[in-house]
User: Fold these one by one.
Assistant:
Number 1:
Amino acid sequence: MSVPLTLLGLLEREPSHGYDLKRDYDAYFGRGKPLPFGQVYATLSRLARDGKATAGEAEPGGGPDRKRYAITPAGQLEVETWLTEPVAPEPHLQTVLFAKVVLALMLGRPAAEYLDTQRRAHLGRMRELTELKQAGSLIDALLADHGLFHLEADLRWIDTTTARLGALAQAVRPATYDRSAGGAR
Amino acid sequence: MIRFGLRLTLRGGREAVVRLAITAIAVAFGTGLLLAAIAGVNAVNTQNLRVAWLDTVPGPVAGHQAPAAARAQPLWWELRPDYYRGELMGRLDVAATGPRSPVPPGIPRLPGPGQYYASPAMTKLLDTVPADELADRYPGHQIGTIADSALPAPNSLLIIVGHSVSYMAHQRAADKVSAIQAVPLSSCDGPSCAIAVGIDANGMDLILSVVGVGLLLPVLIFIGASTRLSAARREQRFAAMRLTGATPRQVTVIASVESAVAGALGTAAGFALFFALRPVIASFPYSGAPFFTSDMSLSLTDIAVVVVGVPAAAAIIAWIALRRVQTSPLVRTGYGLSTVVDGAHPGGEFSFRRRSALHRTPHPHLTPHPHAPRTRTAPTPRNRPHSPLPTPHSLPAPRAALSFP
Amino acid sequence: MTRYEAAAGAGAGTGTVLGSEHVIEARDIVRSFGLTPALQGASLRARRGEILAVMGPSGSGKSTLLHCLAGILTPDSGEIWFGGQRIDSLSETQRSRLRRDRFGFVFQFGQLVPELTAAENVALPLLLNGVRRVPALAEASAWFGRLDLDGLEQRRSGELSGGQAQRVALARGLVARPEVLFADEPTGSLDTLTGEHVMTLLTATARAEGTTVILVTHEARIAAYADREVMVRDGRVVIGADGGSTP
């Protein structure tokens, strides 16, 4: 689960305070483990240092949590790349895929295409494993099967999510509107 | 293709043979009934013809003039019923006026005074019953038996007694007849006949036709039902053959062969059934007297019609039933048009089959990264107000999931 | 890159003329059943000798697409090209002959004729073509050894297990040395291991014979036996392996 990329993606919606980013991260991706404040600000600082985000002026009366961050074109490119390219397929990828789909929907990106691209990558890997299975020993076959079954499970999730994208988009997007007055995307 | 069809029908395994047998039995019943009805009509007509001579009356016979010689030497004739222990007997008293007097059928010549002919049943009765109860009624002795060709029925009690002309002339009810009736009177329907045997032929035809249809209908339904029994299996089989590339015509041929075989076997069995039961059917006196077995005959035309018609009808019924299959190798199932015998998944594509995880020893070939120990988060309550999305369960250690060589 | 792609070279061109490398093609197929549209402009091309998986959710129209390709159904509009000629406009008899001589079929349920023995079932395409009984059965028997079916020649379909029945169906699909083998959920009613056995044999024999395979399945692990996959959604083919929308 890539925290920097996820925060960057959340940041792309609109300039935000660290506090807001953390709140949204916890809501969608926290899974019961809230992100420590320290990690949030350390990550944001690093992103700013790497030129992917900019830190605005610190507002009076506050520490680092009063800074408003904004994404830079470099940061946008990074998010774009991350969303567009399929993750190398392997089992237990649900969380990363999950994050990518949710963010894609939030940012109005073509989540269906990303999922299709990921599906192709998964199937390609399954083809490789199937070939290995037929060529190798029984032990090889067992290992290949292990990978195959988990990849299949991933694909099932991809298929289900693809079918649900419409509803998911509805669930995800209204949240981006009611945060700051007048700053609608 | 025909040979192929024969093989499918006859060597198709036990189930196919059973289906064939059921259809053949149904056809056999139908055929048997049909034959019995036809033979029954024939029997009535034959019998009517045979007993026509009993309706002999004086005067011109059915519009044809007897030869002058016979008119010159008429036959004294008195036909009356008699009874023995409640059983009806027929007694004909005759006297010839000359050598050319007409002779009734069934006897070689007219009996003279003191002579009589008796039917076989009557002969038996005369032999077994004490003379003072029966034989004494008839003057004289028996000189022969009346042939079957003159009798209404095998068990008819009939006696033809010869007398002198002077005796007959003094009988009030006796008449002089110059010719024996040879054609059944069309108005002969029991009471108006001399002897209560025979039914008006037209009436009989009607009765038998109605009865035949009434009995045939359930049999036809039975045949239809037995065809339907195997219809699903046949449809499946033909659809499978069509899928494999059988042309509609090939399937038609095979289906027809099957029906023809069932029809032919059934028809043959029907004939056998009919001939076996013919004596029993003949013994029913539905025209007033039973029939000779040989009365229930079938003309060649009758046989030809049944032998050709029944298998043909069976084949046509099968062709109609299978028209739907011939147009498509796909069978309509509950899920809509689909592959032969339902290709749709009732459970949908997401029926999840759990498999236990296999062992996780890293193997250089297959796993580009080492498997990290799986960390499990405490499951979160589903109705957390903040998270609109369901939370996924097991998580790998993030680093391990994304590291690649 | 899969074994097939490595052998075949770079990806296919997108010309409208059916190249010699493409053995069968569907162009803009539209097909409805009554008021229900099953295909709404589906296009597909398969190269000679490749194993192509056609995937999609239930109701996406993938089976209908296969039926149109195989000449079982005629499309309402669109064209099917095979071997350089249009086959969607052929008569029912001509398409039947096509199925008999140049196509093979393995569907979810064996579709074996129950009144015939296994050997007769396998020989069926040959018998329908007028081949005499003895040579047809001899040809059929040769397949029993190849597909682990020794000794089952005289059994009837009711006496075969699911996997055996599917392998008999596979033998029947290949006995006439077809150019295209159409498989629609061939392992759908089999358990995992049996299904994998069938798929291994199917792909191995198809590759050995150079037969093109069109494999309709909703299961990824079965599609993984193919060289590439296409997705069917809402009556259209939406993804091809080449990355673009034209397969």
Number 2:
Amino acid sequence: MTDPAAPALGGEASAPRRALDASIAHIREELRRAGVQMLGVDVLLALVIGIEISPASALLWFAGMQTLQHQRRRAALAPQGAAAADPEAFIRSMQHWWLLLGFGRAAVVALAFLYGQENLEVVVTMVLVGLAAGSVATSGGEVRLMRAWTFPALGTLALAWAAQLDWLGGTLALLVLALARLLIGYVENSGRQGRRLIDYAVELETERDRVRSANAALEEAGALLRIERDRAAAANAGKTRVLASVSHDLRQPLFAMSLNTAALGDTLERIDDPYLARIEAGLRRGLTQCRGLLDQLVDFARLDAGSVEVRWAALELGPYLQALAAPYEAAARAAGLDWQLQLAARPLHAWTDALLLERLLGNLLHNAVKFTPRGTVGLRLLPQAGTVRIEVFDTGPGIPAEHQERVFEEFYQLDNPSRDRSRGIGLGLSIVRRLARLLGIELHLSSTGTQGCCFELLLPASGGPAAACRPADGAADDPAEAMAREAFAAESAAARNGKVVLAIDDEADLLADLDTMLGGRGYRVLTAACADEACRRARQQPPDIVLADFRLRDRQTGAAAVQAVRALLGRCVPALIITGETDAQNLAEADASGLRVLHKPLDGRVLARAVEEALAGQPPGQA
Amino acid sequence: MQVLLVDNDRLLLEALSVAMQARHPDLQVDLAASEPEALALAGERAFDLILLDWWLGEASAAGCYASLREQCPQARIVVMSGDDRPRLVYEVLELGAAGFLCKNAAGFAEMREAIDIVARGGVYLPGRLGARDEVSPSVRQRWQGRSLAECFPALSPQQQAVLRVLLRGVSDKVIARELDVEVSTVKTHKKIVFRRLGVNSRAEAVALAARMGVMLD
């Protein structure tokens, strides 16, 4: 719509008012558009009247009619403010104009029927019927306007025909009246429908506005939430930074104090002073405790900052837990507690980080020992479909149900109102929870409140040999990474799970060394003192690799023993020669065997790498 | 033995010198709290051992390390830091450090052992990097300091000499000058030594030496 006075949709107006506004806009539009057509009709009528009756009456009527038309247009179109301010008054004033125009048409009827011929009567009737149809549009669904025009115009026409007092006149009069009734009914109906449409539109608009404002509110709430979240994240990051820098800044003076205390202890070895010795012991205990707390803080800060790297590897849990638990077993026994370590009958492998898991379990075991006054603490390793289950349990006072969720929060402590430092600062379990999350471990706490605690850990299982296909995470070429990985002893155990190593040496010492170093890394070690025994062993259980001392008893060489085993198995089993030779001649001889030579004393990591490389079929030597 | 301690923290300098001299009264310890101080002292005395803090204030001590290395080719330079992440340890070992001392030592026993090893010419690395339980159990024992020949009998005297200077952490050029051989000869020897030891880099060689309990001086 181009009319500037057209009521804008979406205003505050009520639905009836909006309907009225729409009608007015429509009326104005129609008047503006239909002006020329009206003029044409009036000119035509005036001409006919001028010819049929008298030019004077035609002129008079035309002038009167045009004045009315002009005034109506002016009233309707000019003051756009009036229509907007009070649409009812506007409609009422329009009603007058419609009425006057209706009488204007009635004048034509009168002229035609009083002075004209019969054909003029017919022409006028046709024109009026046409105009009546046209006024349906002009009245814009406003039935009051339609009536105001129709009553004088068509009423007079019907009356004029009826006054003929013949059957044709009566019929036509009735038809005109029926038409009038029909048109008025139509306008009424279309007005009602228009109002209903407007109602519907208003409803839609209201709904739209409601949705819009709801959206806006949501957006605002979202923005607030974002701000809140950012603030919380910033606060958290700030807390982490403070923790990190405090623990870092405390470390150095603490280290200096430790050095001084150590110096005091060393000096006391030379001068005997029991009083000073007590002071030294007190200092040492305090510092040890301090360092424990600080370690927790650093762990916590690092975990919180997400700067802890996970070195994933397959880990055989049996030997690992045995080694890990030893100091806690000692601590438990020292505290007068019973200790239980229950391992699964078969080897279980988890996909995890050995060092981080050690910290996690260490925290739990430390707590178990610390909070159990009497009874038993222990560790269980159980197989479970799809996962591996580790349980740390105690017979301590337990954790009441209402605290079981909260104990994993940082700085939350049960029953420590005096914040006794020897009981820690309440970070242990929050570190446990963070580590568990990092390692994909499902963590459950069950405690009946009086029967002690049991922490259940469900670790991602490693499929044992199948996991060999899985490349160890971060097995990049970065030598620092490689060294670190080896340093943390969590080497990709996958490749060696269950691999059989046949070790041949006439010295029991070296065999024991090999058994310890390789057995601890997941290999099965068979031992033999000579080539014959090696062949017997190989027949019982074919080895995946042979390690032979270069010089065996009775002038046998390791190289010959390797040949014998290979001949027996009918395939070229990987083999390594170990030698303690220092003599250049003998060394050259060992080198000449074509097998890779390792030198005594053996380093576990060098040996492990050599065995792994040999098993993988890599050429010996360096990168 | 002449020792130089370089750290921007006076408290730590004092404590470290006290702790070292309490166990090893024969040590002569000098303290420097900054790079200029350290270089001035290095110009006056021939140090056998330098303990250098890796973070001197804001910057790393890499520049200071290079200057000290230049000035004292005969000294073992051991880097100290509160940060003992393997990546940093590896970096400083590749750079030529003759060991790494962590300022977060886990306990008194470990701290004393570290001081002993460093003061007696051994190679010390923190925690698992220097774990001696990785060595054949039949030779495993408390650190006593064993000669290179004892630890690596398979190396020829010439190779042992190369390894000794290599572990101290000087360039191939300095090794060549000290042993009076060509640089290319040094390179060849290094290759053979690495292969014999089963290592791939200087850092790994130092780590192996630490595990074996090598005593350099």
